[in-house]
Amino acid sequence: MESEVISTDKAPKAIGPYSQAIKFGNIVFCSGQIPIDPLTGEFVPGGIVEQTEQVLKNLSAVLEAAGSSLQKVVKTTVFLADMNDFAAMNEVYERFFSRNKPARSTVQAARLPKDARVEIECIAFV
Fold first, then answer.
1. d(Cα 102, Cα 120) in Å, to the nearest integer?
2. Fewer beta carbons under 10 A from the terminal one: N or C of the chain?
3. Strands, DSSP E only, in 11-72?
4. Which residues lie closer than 8 Å to 48 by C-beta, 6 or more apart?
5. pLDDT at 53
6. How far apart are CA 108 and CA 10, in angstroms?
7. The 21-24 sheet, strands edge to edge
């Protein structure tokens, strides 16, 4: 079985030597997404709420390109620049995962790419 590189212009381009996602069989491994608006290439304005919304929209676009969706996510990892943002991030996260509640880890990272406040990666099935 071979892996397939997943790429879409509906999510930010990778900012390093990695893919937006890799599909292997019926599993999709999504790289972490940060709150970049794919139309502008810049962070969305606002705080943790707006950044979390954009991150999840970006993940959704990558999953759709792979033939999957947020409803098929089985595991996420959330990286926060400040764990004090957990409650606000969690409120937005819950809206996107209202029916499907994947396994999740949430950690505070010393620093995220481009000084984002939040980054989320996931594993899903197709």
1. 13
2. N
3. 21-24, 27-33
4. 85, 88, 89, 117, 118
5. 98
6. 27
7. 3-6, 21-24, 27-33, 118-125, 73-80, 103-108
Answer for the pair 45, 37: CB distance below 8 angstroms, yes or no.
no
Helix (H) or strand (E) holding 55: helix 48-65
Task: Give 93's contacts (C-beta < 8 A, 6+ positions apart).
Answer: 52, 56, 78
Q: Say if residues 11 and 39 touch (Cβ distance below 8 Å).
A: no
| Span 61-86, pLDDT tens digits | 999 999 999 999 999 999 999 999 99
Tell me which of 3.40.190.170, 3.30.70.120, 3.30.1330.40, 3.20.20.30 is the CATH number of domain 3-125: 3.30.1330.40
Q: What are phi and psi of 22, to 5 degrees?
A: -125, 130
Identify the sign of the CA torsion 9, 15, 18, 24: negative
84: its two tokens: 């004090």
pTM: predicted TM-score of the whole model, two decimal places:
0.97
